[in-house]
Write a structure and sequence with these properties.
Number of helices: 1
Strand order of the largest sheet: 2-1-3-4
Number of strands: 4
Strand content: 25-35%
Helix content: 10-25%
Radius of gyration: 12 Å
Largest sheet: 4 strands, antiparallel
Structural class: alpha+beta
Mean pLDDT: 85
Order of helices and strands: EEEEH
Length: about 80
């Protein structure tokens, strides 16, 4: 069953380098990560702190490249 909330999925991302965090809607455009002090490079580390909606990869530390999995989940629906 396709969730009607998939389009409104969002994720709270924290930059472990400076502690800044913000909510980002999905699909995520990596250039938006500059809001928390990141450059959007695939190798940068981020922390997923919380999420809302159906798209989810888990809590904890990931690379920006890992966020591409979230984008694929959202775009598949």
């Amino acid at each position: 069953m396709v969730s009607k909330y998939m389009g409104s999925s969002k994720v709270l991302i924290r930059n472990p380098e400076n502690g800044r965090k913000a909510w980002f809607g999905l699909p995520l455009y990596f250039g938006q990560l500059t809001r928390i002090g990141l450059q959007g490079s695939y190798e940068e580390q981020i922390e997923v702190v919380e999420y809302q909606g159906s798209a989810f990869i888990g809590f904890g530390y990931f690379t920006v490249e890992d966020l591409e999995q979230l984008n694929r989940q959202v775009e598949d629906y």
